[in-house]
Amino acid sequence: MTNTPSPRDRDNSEQDQFLTILSREDALARFEAALFPRAVPGEQRPLADALGCALAEDVTAPIDVPPFDRSNVDGFAVRSADLASAGEASPARVMLNDEVIACGTAPTRPVLSGTATPIATGGPVPRGADAVVMVEHTQPAGHRAIDIRRAASPGQFVSYAGSDIARGEALLRAGTIIGSREIGILAACGIADVAVARRPRVAIMSTGDELVQPGHALRPAAIYDTNGAIVTAAITENGGEAKFLGAVADDEAQLESAMREALATSDMLVLSGGTSKGAGDVSHRIISRLGKPGIIAHGVALKPGKPLCLAVCDRKPVIILPGFPTSAMFTFHDMIVPVLRRMAGLPPRSDAKVNARVPVRIASELGRTEFVMVSLVEGADGLIAYPTGKGSGAITSFAQADGFLRIDVLADQMPAGSEAEVTLFTPHVRVPDLVIVGSHCTGLDLVTAPLSHAGLTVRSIAVGSLGGLSAAKRGECDFAPIHLFDEKTGTYNTPYLTEGLELVPGWRRMQGIVFRKGDQRFEGLNAEGAVRAALADPACIMVNRNQGAGTRILIDRLLGGARPDGYWNQPRSHNAVAAAVAQQRADWGMTIAPVAHASNLGFIPFAEEHYDFALVKARKQRPAVQAFLDALASKVGRAALAHAGFRPA
Amino acid sequence: MTNTPSPRDRDNSEQDQFLTILSREDALARFEAALFPRAVPGEQRPLADALGCALAEDVTAPIDVPPFDRSNVDGFAVRSADLASAGEASPARVMLNDEVIACGTAPTRPVLSGTATPIATGGPVPRGADAVVMVEHTQPAGHRAIDIRRAASPGQFVSYAGSDIARGEALLRAGTIIGSREIGILAACGIADVAVARRPRVAIMSTGDELVQPGHALRPAAIYDTNGAIVTAAITENGGEAKFLGAVADDEAQLESAMREALATSDMLVLSGGTSKGAGDVSHRIISRLGKPGIIAHGVALKPGKPLCLAVCDRKPVIILPGFPTSAMFTFHDMIVPVLRRMAGLPPRSDAKVNARVPVRIASELGRTEFVMVSLVEGADGLIAYPTGKGSGAITSFAQADGFLRIDVLADQMPAGSEAEVTLFTPHVRVPDLVIVGSHCTGLDLVTAPLSHAGLTVRSIAVGSLGGLSAAKRGECDFAPIHLFDEKTGTYNTPYLTEGLELVPGWRRMQGIVFRKGDQRFEGLNAEGAVRAALADPACIMVNRNQGAGTRILIDRLLGGARPDGYWNQPRSHNAVAAAVAQQRADWGMTIAPVAHASNLGFIPFAEEHYDFALVKARKQRPAVQAFLDALASKVGRAALAHAGFRPA
Fold it and tell me: Of all helices (H) and strands (E), which one includes residue A338?
């Protein structure tokens, strides 16, 4: 529910009631102060349904475990004093009592001096006995007696009542999360129901007319609702009972009614999408009518996540998350999870942290605490943290990162080479077995698939050919996929290699002109002809590629100095070029054949690009590198590449 | 389903078909060889129900995300070339196109040179435009035009189609566990259903007539079924769909029919209880009839866990876990979880490991790989691993341990002071805030309760007074609760303190004679009289305490050299004494008043025991120690102690 600005609205924006941007710490402190302390409501649950819940109360052991003095072996319950002089050469003979204590059998006869009672593992030691001898250390002596060839110390092979758990001892404390081990302790005491913290009911709503739910067809200009699903899942992961109510249209009356209804049956309401400060942003107006104290913070000096809105309406938290997925998820984890877990009676999440070096300078905005999502790879002397770099509008920035680092509110950058503390999203860093940094290609996914299926972890960080080459020179990756054209020699890639790097041939990608099928300006022409035709039509708009891309060099060569409309539209990927043409934002551009075909575009082949690998020689013998080289050379790998439209070198 | 041995059976045991004890590694290798490779069956699930499941197939991006070139700000879509010379002093004036691109609105008009189109965050960049300028950097110039005061670089504030996720790129690999982040990635691509590995259906059965399910009353000689609940929960935690079928009686026909039925509808069957090698052990006979190849290993050179039985019947694993809870859980995690996770399409569990010093010698059995459950505490120079020490018959050995260390099959001990690698049961070590090592008392739970509720973690390791004192001298705990009587001075505790320790007075515990209410031999007597009466009756059996216990000194004093029946029955706790008397295994003994009252026994007070704390001076200023001292001195703490029958010092 972002809204369309118009310059006419700008003067009114001064009247906006939420001008104050709070610091992250201040916002969280005010939010928590408005919500806590509060009692965590409990509910009784059968043990089997309590897995993952938090205990609402301390649990004290109601019985001794074991409940009686128990035999730990199969053997005979005896009086140790009777065996004081027993040995291999001088066995002690004892008479057998006329009962057998199986597991679950209560003894009925005492063990008198000079007697023994057969007893199974787990059986209760009878009155009079003070030790158990193992059956292996005895010998039958007729049907009514045995010889015992070893002395027994008092208490031998006996587990005394209460030695595992003593009646009255504190077993588990309130707030403990019930895992299988806790279930074991409770079951051992005979506890079948426990008081657990009731999961807070959290209603989730997406707002925005542009949102389409996954599984439905995407309209032009629409996008899939990502935040609804991810927030719902993250609430479940953090102890809430999530109820996703779908996307609600941008209509104030309709939205208010939906919010009131959701809040009436929930303990918390989370909206995502409606955080624009534009005049049409109705969510916060509605919130101010929902209950006291209302909005606590609208705008937090936090990046990503500035437009976060925190409110409390009649003791219930109401949150509007930013619309961008990474902003939404980051603020959710940073600001909402602590509150949710506390409401759920759960302990704070314990985040694992590691130290890592930042290989590149990271710019930051003064005055906002900035959190940078990073991927971790193993360098020569420790971990290296690569910014994922796609920005807060990208879901993958958050979802494919290993963790994040923090840049202080008063810093305007983190210099290259800095040591930073990285908070991990999952408890373990699993450093990938194979690290690929450079230009990405869907062909690469085909080659690495068998490695993934064999349990090797592959990390591919897309930073372009030149960025990959730098990483390879610094030894931060196993190899860099590159497709760099050297105009001087007219060759690809080899001229760019330096000491310590070796070229591994990859595959050829046919580049050519794309256009919408049926566009009569281009049908039947070759590349040079197509560009001539485009330049001849003033209504014809092109889409270019970014400076530095190999494809850009080819385009400039074909244009021969012309700068037609669209020349400055310079996306960074083959896919973006195809999308621009398919969606009629441009009429022609240059991309690779597989991408053109996937978009069902017309394609005029022009020149092959060499997509090769700059291999870090020092890492060549690593098993994952060898596995990659094997997969690249394998018949099945080459066949998969060819099938996808690439030509293996 | 352990069974009662009799010496008569011993000769037949040689005919047992499962005499070969395999090494742990050999057993696991044979088990896995009989089960794998196998296909992981998949099933289609809605995204919302896929949380925690493992992906069954690779997922490739079906669309570009974003699907179009998207504006990242509220502002105006422009041609960057139009603004080449724009600046604060020389704004560029452009005419506004007659449309407004909201989020979700497909543009219908191109941005021609000299024009701009208002666009909201998330809106698709129209044809012709190659950049977006923020509304803040513009000024209205009448109703149909704006002035722009900054140049714009091509692509400014534009996220190109496919820049987040490119169509055709490998999104997630088979085997990935679906968390909220993966759900976000899938939703962003519009994927509403995913193929996930179907959770293996695992049937769990307990065997043993002695077992009572939690929630039901415990019969004499019976125990609660711990393994059923804990195994069921652990299967859920490791990707299985667990179905607990309850306890099945020890009857061969009935058990066979139950096992056949369970196996027919499950992918795996886990039994616990029936691993005795006694003649009555029917489970393995049944297994040999259930399918090929049948039993793979019966008996593994593993401690705890030797009696583990591994079988495969017609491609389905059938496992009989040892009956002792810690043996059952340890073998389950060590030998069964890897197989279960592989069947569930999950990656191997990644266990975190830490190094720690072992403060005491640990004996081990030559010829068996021994795993020792340990609790971790922070020492002066690193972590210290205390063996939990209650043995495999105790559920708490496993459930309250932080992890385990391994003693090699060829070692007969681990010497005190060894450095050992500890595998953690949970990813993080949370070193406790307060460490108490020594003699346990339920009064201690009352004093530490407020600390736990304030979020401080308290670890109490019960090793007796003398063991606690040693730990305190080594600086391994904050304090040691002790109740040590010095016969020379006739005083408690103080004479035992050494340099670096300080006595903190705790409370007094009244010790006295316990007997069953109504036992006319003891009613109305004082302690001396009661002991005289007991000694006068040859049928009267006592229960003693272990050598070294303060209570033992009192008993010996009262007995004056007599050694009546039961003298050598020497349990190590107050609770065991009460249980022996309550269950008629003994007629009298000495325990403390609160324990006697909890067991509803008659109690004759004799002498107060001083339960005090040997505080490690160097750790006195720690916040948790201060919090403990505060709680001990607090009115509410003293009242709780008094209410429970203790007398605060």
Answer: helix A337-343
Share of chain A above pLDDT 90, in %: 73
**Token code pair at residue A558:** 């074909």
Q: Which residues of B touch A184 (CB under 8 A)?
A: 226-227, 229-230, 233, 325, 329, 395, 398-399
Cis peptide before B7 (omega within 30 of 0): no
Retrieve residue B81's tokens.
């070339």
Cβ contacts of residue B360 below 8 Å, gap of 6+?
Answer: B386, B387, B416
Return the bridge partners of A169, or none.
none
CA separation for the pair B47, B126 (Å, rounded): 33
Nearest CA in chain A to B218: A190
Note whether B602 and B522 are within 8 A (CB): yes
CATH level 2 (architecture), domain A353-424: Beta Barrel (2.40)
Mean pLDDT calculated for residue range A446-462: 89
CB contact under 8 A, B187 and A393: no
Q: What are phi and psi of A615, to 5 degrees?
A: -90, 135
pTM above 0.90, yes or no: no
Cβ A140–B8 below 8 Å, yes or no?
A: yes
Q: Which residues in A lie closer than 8 A to residue B162 (C-beta atoms)?
A: 573, 575-576, 579
Q: How far away is chain B from the Cα of A499, in angstroms, using its nearest Cα?
A: 32
Please check whether the domain covering A42-65+164-197 is classified as CATH 3.20.20.70: no
DSSP state for residue A7 in the 8-state scheme = G
CATH number, domain B17-36+199-343, options 2.10.70.10, 3.90.1150.10, 3.30.70.100, 3.40.980.10: 3.40.980.10
Q: Where are the domains of chain B?
A: 17-36+199-343, 42-65+164-197, 70-159, 353-424, 432-649
Considering the domain B432-649, what is its CATH architecture? 3-Layer(aba) Sandwich (3.40)
- Which CATH number is A70-159's, of 2.170.190.11, 3.40.50.720, 3.90.180.10, 3.30.450.40? 2.170.190.11
Tokens, residue A20: 């104050």
Complex ipTM value: 0.89
CATH node for A16-36+200-343: 3.40.980.10
- Max CA separation in chain B (angstroms): 117
Token pair belonging to A550: 């190999």
Taking the domain A434-649, which CATH number applies? Answer: 3.40.190.290
Which position has the token pair 């996008």?
A: A223
Q: Which residues contact B490 (CB under 8 A, 6 or more apart)?
A: none
Per the CB < 8 A criterion, the answer to whether B469 and B573 are in contact is no
Nearest to B164 among A193, A394, A594 (CB): A394
Using pLDDT thresholds of 50, 70 and 90, give the confidence band for residue B506: very high
| Percent of chain B whose predicted confidence (pLDDT) is above 90 | 73
